[in-house]
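Task: sequence design from structure.
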């Protein structure tokens, strides 16, 4: 179900037109990272303005009035302007789906661009606005009268808009295992981005990178670390594990990590294992940071990468 994010949807007292080379825009700044899927704009028409094109575009860093002419659209959609209410009838909150959408970053300024390129004669699109007491603090009313060559902003004015979207897949990091024992270990991870909602965080683990075992999970949000203790391991054994985080959209996985359980120095209950001289050398090189294991489980030695 879509969630309403940035919006300014009350207090309209005027309108501005989009037609031919006259384009309109409203900048906005999301407070949470999310994937925008659609916008709703308060619109009506005069005559038949044809296809209305609406898009999301990036802006100049930090600039309240920073629409960059000619910058590529991040996502785009269309609606049939001929089916809008005819002025002076009451305007309609028209929803425009923006293709596959786009992930908007919290604290970054974007712009909703509106153009009616098929207009002719007296055909125009009217976008409702507040031009006397606008209170939207995270963006500006903007317009271009030469088809995206130049943009101008009006402080204290804002268009009526709603920006709708939903969470994204989470991003998670697998951190090295700690507290290694002959039969137990502590697995560590960090939730880098929860995608817009709390995530269930845990681990997959096993003797190969096919894993086969999972831990319990705990609820975390962006920036929080998590861990799980696993027991019942075999001494002197190499294990793989990776962190994972799940929200309502999907599951994100961290990179594969490895660890080796310890071997008690004098435990007669543990049968000795056949260990090759090459494995002993590899373990020594791993412990001294002179090689790493790639994603396929292959050792990449000191001579093959720069430290």
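Answer:
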């Amino acid at each position: 179900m879509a969630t309403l994010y940035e919006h300014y949807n009350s207090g309209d007292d005027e309108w501005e037109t989009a037609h031919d080379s006259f384009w309109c825009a409203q900048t906005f700044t999301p407070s949470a990272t999310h994937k925008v899927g659609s916008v709703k704009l308060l619109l009506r028409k005069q005559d038949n303005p044809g296809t209305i094109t609406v898009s999301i575009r990036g802006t100049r860093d930090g600039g309240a009035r920073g629409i960059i002419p000619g910058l590529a659209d991040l996502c785009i959609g269309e609606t049939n302007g001929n089916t809008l209410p005819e002025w002076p009838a009451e305007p309609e909150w028209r929803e425009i789906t923006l293709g596959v959408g786009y992930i908007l970053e919290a604290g970054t300024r974007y712009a909703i661009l509106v153009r009616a390129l098929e207009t002719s004669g007296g055909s125009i699109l009217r976008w409702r606005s507040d031009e006397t007491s606008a209170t939207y603090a995270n963006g500006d009313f903007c317009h271009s009268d030469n088809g995206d060559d130049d943009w101008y902003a009006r402080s204290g004015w804002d268009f009526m808009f709603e920006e709708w979207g939903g969470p994204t897949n989470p991003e998670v990091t697998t951190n090295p295992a700690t507290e290694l024992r002959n039969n137990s270990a502590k697995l560590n991870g960090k939730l880098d981005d929860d995608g817009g909602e709390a995530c269930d965080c845990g681990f997959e683990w096993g003797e190969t990178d096919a894993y086969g075992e999972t831990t319990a999970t705990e609820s975390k949000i962006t920036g929080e670390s998590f861990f799980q203790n696993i027991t019942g391991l075999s001494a002197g054994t190499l294990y793989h594990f990776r962190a994972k985080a799940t929200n309502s959209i999907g599951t994100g996985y961290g990179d594969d990590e490895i660890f080796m359980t310890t071997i008690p120095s004098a435990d007669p209950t543990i049968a000795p294992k056949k260990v090759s001289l090459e494995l002993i050398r590899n373990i020594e090189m791993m412990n001294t940071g002179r090689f790493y294991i790639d994603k396929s489980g292959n050792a990449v030695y000191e001579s093959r990468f720069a430290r």
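The chain is about 5% helix and 50% strand.
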